[in-house]
Amino acid sequence: MCYSVSSRRMVLVTLRRQLLTISSGTWARLLQRQSSGFVYSSTHGFNQNEVREKLQAFTGGSIDLLKQDSGIAVLTINNPSRMNAFSGSMMVELEERVSQLESWTDGKGLIVCGAAGTFCSGSDLNAVKAICNPQDGMKMCMFMQDALTRLLRLPLVSVALVEGRALGGGAELTTACDFRLMASDSVIQFVHKHMGLVPGWGGAARLVHIVGSQNALKLLGGALKVDNQFGLQIGLADGVLEASQIKQGAESLIQQAENWLSCYTKGPAPVIHALKKVVLSGRELLLLDALRTEKDVFGTVWGGPANLQALASKSKHK
To answer: Chain-wide mean pLDDT for the chain?
Structure first.
């Protein structure tokens, strides 16, 4: 069957419109998924309430959240007797704390740290042994991937404050923050290979974004110990707090981290939220979709209170 030139053009126009419609729908779904933060749903065989109930059976420790008037919150992994390893109930508490931060309209920054001089040693082995079958392991994996993806997508500028050791899942947790600050004697180590595992909380995917695929393969395949200098060299660490700065203990360390973070959180909360959203879009979406998102977010702050105040004070070149 032969078609005229005009007929072929009409077919091409129709196909183009259909592709644009599909692209637009995909873009909308991507934005919706990004804004909600959730990675898994019932379509993936994931029942969050069911997983929460199972995890809560393994108690111990806590996830403590302190919201400050400065707009910077402190999230503390608190299970010192287990080197701040995550019990099942702590995994549930982490998800709950992330939910609280998602609705914190006055928030601008977040410091994630560990209690009693160390960061986090991953999963509590007691809980791991009890859920060692593949089905339960996959459900725990999906639950923590959701929680840590939502942590990274918070409209806050976040930093992991690494003191002591960040091992296994604790190393993965550091990658769910925008930045990482390391104390002078701290170590980050992806020890999963030693346990016959790979990262399951999204740490491998995030690590590739942070240090590149070759460095990620070295860190995972070699289970390399990353001290602060090695961390700076490969881009895993964004700053080091020297021993002379932290002689007064953990409070001084957190204050140093807050001072460092405040350089990136000065200004009205809505502007910080908008900045974080356009950066997330650039990282997670295709270029054209990221550009459209940037345009939409730009429209929410153009002519807004902060913009008008800046224009009135002519603060652009200050």
So the answer is: 88
